[in-house]
Amino acid sequence: MRRADRLFQIVQLLRSGKLITARHLADTLEVSERTIYRDIAHLVGSGLPIDGEAGLGYLMRAGYDLPPLMFTTDEIVALTAGARMIRAWGGAAMVKGAEQALDKITSVLPDDTRARAEAVAIHARPRADMTETVRRIIDQLEAAVTRRERITMAYSDEAGQKTKRTVRPIGLWYWGPVWTLIGWCELRQDFRMFRLDRIGTAEGAGPFETEPGQSLQDFYAQQAARHGC
Length: 229
Fold this sequence. Notes:
There is one protein chain. This protein has 229 residues and is an alpha+beta fold. The chain has three domains: 3-60, Orthogonal Bundle (Arc Repressor Mutant, subunit A), CATH 1.10.10.10; 73-118, no CATH class; 132-227, SH3 type barrels. 45% of the residues lie in helices and 22% in strands. It has eight helices and seven strands. It has helices at 3-14, 22-29, 33-45, 73-89, 92-107, 111-118, 132-147, 216-227, and strands at residues 50-53, 57-60, 149-156, 162-174, 179-185, 190-195, 199-207. A five-stranded antiparallel sheet has the order 6-5-4-3-7. Strand 4 and strand 5 (179-185) form a beta hairpin. The chain is elongated. The mean pLDDT is 87.
């Protein structure tokens, strides 16, 4: 967690008006108490009205609030619905990030807008095949796309035939029932789509540079030529 994010979380926790110990803050944010002491000192030095001391606890003096975020009702509905969908169908890290982002947003909304967010009638239910393994692979592959890291994986096709593939990942797509990885397959020397629920194992295989004809734009162009769209 970045320090800026951690400082924000500390402020949100202290805004409850209750005395909170450094130990509780450290456990919640998964850092040391010494880190919490430094963060509190930084916040106090920045002018935040925090009372307390090490060994006893801290609280925010009444009357302090963060500037309200300006969201329209449609934006709140979209953010809430999106976070719920990620919670149902996203990777483990994505789920945690979506929940934290939504907590940050709703914590500084006016009461009526917060109530509207909580009343959003759009829900998402995870499928039975959305296992923890699939969620972990989503996070792993998303990071590999960002880092341009080749992935070697054990893959089973529709007939159950297993192969070992080394892929240069370029993106992840969610089609409703399944997630797929789009990448340049070094075995087939062409773009391929791999269902994440058919990936047995996946390991990093070193960085790669995108070569001519192997980019995301090239994939789109290939699909347009094949399907006339």
